[in-house]
């Protein structure tokens, strides 16, 4: 979950001219998931799509942010393709998502998938406000390049929005936190470790005026990478104990993904959790303990990888810790 969303949740009531509202299921955060029912072709977005990931993984799309604005032969795209349950095809060196929509096979660009999510947010906002929403400011990872930014803007256009500006997510977080603070000049470091991307920005805030001093990050580092490490650990452990490879069944992998994500969140407040999946493969149940220490061990290099951008931002902004 992006700190942008968290900060808006925590401080939204104090922001001048700000609004905070829930989606149709009563949640503040809508997952960036899109799915199509394999039988009827019905489209689902957000929570509904994520909830059916384990029963229809081939037609459930996520991580569009890791595809948008990239070429098919991009090394990060090629790295991720084997990890996704949905199929990626090459069209003119651009990645397209191939899905079964009812009885038909259809291909979608990452921009079209993102547009579906933005369209859902537009619908939620219009339901809350009681009027049409035409304009939007869209946030992107600070380290997105020009192609990724333009592709994101194109997604907004497809969704029927006039994207008046693309701004960096750490900047948006600082704005959300600092708009009502008037005590003179301050330096703020925003550490934004999201689901799929990581950004660090140093900003100066002086009486409501924001200046970005330095930005750094990694467009391919986020919570999903931490989840993947734990999943790989359990997949190897399960194979060692049973001789069975969970990777051969996409549903099994997605069941494990769901429970690993829950466990990761629980470890924020607990020292150990049980990761349990009913009938993970061939009717057998899965049950293993995950400790916070083991989670940190599996991901130590990823944690350390977040420190380099912080140091670089401090150096580039000419500020000391």
Automatic annotation (TrEMBL):
Keywords: ATP-binding, Coiled coil, Endoplasmic reticulum, Nucleotide-binding, Signal
Family matches, as InterPro entries: ATPase_NBD, Heat_shock_70_CS, Hsp_70_fam
Coiled-coil segments: 246-273
GO BP terms in the entry: response to endoplasmic reticulum stress; response to unfolded protein
Family under the similarity heading: Belongs to the heat shock protein 70 family.
Species in which this protein is naturally found: Strongylus vulgaris
Principal location class: endoplasmic reticulum
GO CC list: endoplasmic reticulum lumen
SUPFAM superfamilies reported for this sequence: Actin-like ATPase domain
GO molecular function, one term: ATP-dependent protein folding chaperone
Record lineage: Eukaryota, Metazoa, Ecdysozoa, Nematoda, Chromadorea
Annotated compartments: Endoplasmic reticulum lumen
Protein name: Heat shock protein 70
């Amino acid at each position: 979950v992006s700190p942008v969303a968290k900060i808006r949740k925590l401080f939204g009531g104090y922001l001048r001219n700000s609004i905070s509202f829930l989606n149709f299921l009563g949640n503040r955060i809508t997952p960036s998931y899109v799915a199509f029912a394999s039988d009827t072709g019905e489209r689902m977005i957000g929570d509904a799509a994520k909830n059916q990931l384990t029963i229809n993984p081939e037609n459930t799309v996520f991580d569009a942010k890791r595809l948008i604005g990239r070429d098919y032969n991009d090394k990060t795209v090629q790295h991720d393709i084997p990890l996704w349950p949905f199929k990626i095809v090459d069209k003119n060196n651009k990645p397209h998502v191939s899905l079964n929509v009812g009885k038909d096979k259809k291909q979608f660009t990452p921009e079209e998938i993102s547009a579906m999510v933005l369209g859902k947010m537009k619908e939620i906002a219009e339901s809350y406000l009681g009027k049409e929403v035409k304009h939007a400011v869209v946030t992107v990872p600070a380290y997105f390049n020009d192609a990724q930014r333009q592709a994101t803007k194109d997604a907004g256009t497809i969704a029927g929005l006039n994207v008046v500006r693309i701004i960096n997510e750490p900047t948006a977080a600082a704005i959300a936190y600092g708009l009502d603070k008037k005590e003179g000049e301050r330096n703020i470091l925003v550490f934004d470790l999201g689901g799929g991307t990581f950004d660090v920005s140093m900003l100066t805030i002086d009486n409501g005026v924001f200046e970005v001093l330095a930005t750094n990050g990694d467009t391919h580092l986020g919570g999903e990478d931490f989840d993947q490490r734990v999943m790989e650990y359990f997949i190897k452990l399960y194979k060692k104990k049973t001789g069975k490879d969970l990777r051969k069944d996409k549903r099994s992998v997605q069941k494990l993904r769901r429970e690993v994500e829950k466990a990761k969140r629980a470890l924020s407040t607990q020292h150990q959790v049980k990761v349990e999946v009913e009938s993970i493969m061939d009717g057998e149940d899965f049950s293993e303990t995950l400790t916070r220490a083991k989670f940190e061990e599996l991901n130590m290099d990823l944690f350390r990888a977040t420190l380099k951008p912080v140091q670089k931002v401090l150096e580039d902004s000419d500020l000391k810790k």
